[in-house]
Structure formats: structure tokens, C-alpha cells
Fold this sequence. Notes:
This protein is 19% helix and 33% strand. The protein has 270 residues and is of the alpha+beta class. Residues 15, 221 line the site of magnesium ion. Adenosine-5'-diphosphate is lined by residues 11-15, 163-166, 205-207, 216, 219.
Amino acid sequence: TADPLTRYEAVIGIEIHCQLRTVTKMFCSCSVPDDGAEPNTHVCPVCLGLPGALPVINRRAVELVLLTGMAIEATTPDATRWDRKNYFYPDLPKGYQISQYDLPLAAAGRLAIETSDGPFVVGITRAHLEEDTAKLVHASGDDGRKVSLVDFNRSGVPLMEIVTEPDIRTAEQARRYAEELQLLMRSIGASDADMERGQMRVEANVSLRPRGTEPFGTRVEVKNMNSFRSVERAIQYEIARQAAALDAGEPLRQETRGWADDRGETYHMR
Ligand code: ADP
Ligand code: MG
Ligand code: ZN
């Protein structure tokens, strides 16, 4: 069959988490560990979420998000605040993540990119500050039993989440946006933004609509892309998969899918 993009238009929004370039964590004085650090060596009552521990804001992390806001021509609020994102999972010792909901440190920005179709401007909805979670390691013990281990070194590391408007229309634009954002992060010194090392994590929200129509279709969120190339490939795959489903009259469901780079396909996560 013909290219699905002759019949459908893709609507894409990107969420990117960047690990900020700070010496210490978001709400405590633990140092941000290097990649090879021994598990649970950079922890304290605050980032372990122990009862009664009080968070103290990392000034540098706030400055780096404000700097990013200026670089993307965003507006800065007169006041800001923190919000609790409640969920229960072993990687989140407090039972909630400290994040920003309705007063992010940067709002309504943009980033200009070049693509093979010419220049393009991606609207950026917001950039806010939050804390990273711990890391779960699933392993087998000596007796073969399955165990899950928790490394709290990453717990409380400063993260900036940057969310775009649903402005992006092609997989290439999405890849170029991520590449340009990495360049920006590095040039202003906000983040090392190395995708392979998990310092920059890209998630793509993808939906299709028949060309010439306005309403957005059902969106699918795609995670686990470890390179710029996989961002482009995962979105291309998702566009083709969704077009085939729509052509077959199958309704799409809103879901989170992962990208399996070796198989070159997305799979249902939740
Ligand atoms: P959530 O917090 O559940 O991830 P958001 O409303 O913050 O949801 O949206 C996340 C991203 O999805 C944003 O980048 C937004 O532009 C994009 N998005 C929203 N609706 C759609 C859609 N129908 N198709 C594609 N992307 C979408
Ligand atoms: Mg999301
Ligand atoms: Zn700590």
C-alpha cells in the first residue's frame, strides 16, 4: 500500500527529561554519583525519603532551568511552587515525587530547527524541575530465585522535564528537535544530555488524524529510545502501525509502548 502519510497526518509531542549538571542532588547535599558508583553510596535521610527529613532546594538546579527558559524564549513566572506527584512503586521511597504542576519555571517557549523540508519552529509548552527516582535492578540470587534490588544513588538527582506542544508532524522533525535540544543543553551548560548514559530521556507521543481533519486521534506514548536514530525509527514504526490499524478499522487504545531497538518495533508496556 501507499505511504500512510498520504492519507494521515501525524501529530507528535515530545517529552524530554534532562539530568541537570549540578554537583549535588535536588533537595539534599549528597553528591550526584558518577556512572560507576557503588550502589547506595550517595544517600541520606532526604533522598531515602525517611520520615521527618526536610528537603532544601538546590539553587543551581533552579538557575539552570531559568537559563533554559531564557534560551528557549520562554516566560518565567513571578512565583513558583512544588507539587507532589503521588504514586507507589519501590523506586520512590517517599510515595511521591516532588515535581512542578501548574507553575513551572519556564512556559510558552520555542526551539527553531532545520530539517530536509526547511526550517521549523517547535512550540515548547513548559520546562519544570523535578527529582529522579531510584533504580530497580532485577536479578537472580545464587539459588536462582528472582530478586529485585534498589539502588538509591539516583534518587533525588535533579531532572528538568521539557514538554513540547503537539506541533511536530514527522519523525525527522522529532529527531532534529531532540538533537537541537541536546546541543542547547550542552552549550548553556544545563546538562551533559548524553542519551546512552540516561542523562537525556526522550518520550514521543504519537497520534494520527485523517489529512484535512482537525480533531486529534488517540495518542500512544513511546519510551526507551536510546539514540536519536531510535527516536526517528520508533516514530516511523508507530506511524505505520497506527495507520495499518486505522485502515483495518481497529480502534487505537491510549497506551504506553516501549521501543525494542533490536527488533525494530514498539511493544505494549501499560
Ligand atoms: P501526560 O502528562 O499524560 O504525559 P500531556 O498532556 O502533558 O500528558 O502531554 C504530553 C505530550 O503529549 C505533550 O508533548 C503533548 O503535546 C502531546 N500530546 C497531547 N495530545 C496529543 C495527541 N493527541 N497526539 C500526539 N501528541 C499529543
Ligand atoms: Mg507523558
Ligand atoms: Zn541525599
